[in-house]
Amino acid sequence: MLAFASLTSCGSQQYQALTVPELTKHVFDAKNLMAACDPRHGQYLTMTAVFRGRMSMKEVDEQTLNMQNKNSSHFVEWIPNNVKTAVCDIPPRGLEMVVTFIGKSTAIQELFKRISELFTDARPSSTGTQDSFRTGAMAN
């Protein structure tokens, strides 16, 4: 699962005072995920967050650890050190601070179940028009 925070226009960036705690909170929010699933319905196996902009690595590590401890039930305990962070002090053009998140979570199964159900429902049944066509064609 991918997430990006903060999703704002360049023009409105000047009205928002982004901080590392806010970015960390936003990146764990289901609304910022680029997949239609809720991470609270699963557990993270691994995750990484790449912060870009001028910020302290210590603050990034503290905030990430706080978020992991606060949501400990959403992280598997049998994979040690499953959260990694990195900081690049050069922000994207026009932005001051951003974070990109990549996580491997069991919650992604929601998305695949919905897709599977769509294709299962769309599959022609044995009494569908294809069988009728074959039967009619063979009768001639």
From TrEMBL:
Cofactor(s) essential for the protein: Mg(2+)
GO molecular function, one term: GTP binding
GO biological process: microtubule-based process
Residue intervals of the Tubulin/FtsZ 2-layer sandwich domain: 1-117
Gene Ontology CC entries for this record: microtubule
Pfam families in alphabetical order: Tubulin_C
InterPro entries listed in its UniProt record: Tub_FtsZ_C, Tubulin, Tubulin/FtsZ-like_C, Tubulin/FtsZ_2-layer-sand-dom
Alphabetic keyword roster: Cytoplasm, Cytoskeleton, GTP-binding, Isopeptide bond, Microtubule, Nucleotide-binding
Gene3D superfamilies per the UniProt record, alphabetical: Tubulin/FtsZ, C-terminal domain
Family: Belongs to the tubulin family.
Protein name per UniProt: Tubulin beta-7 chain
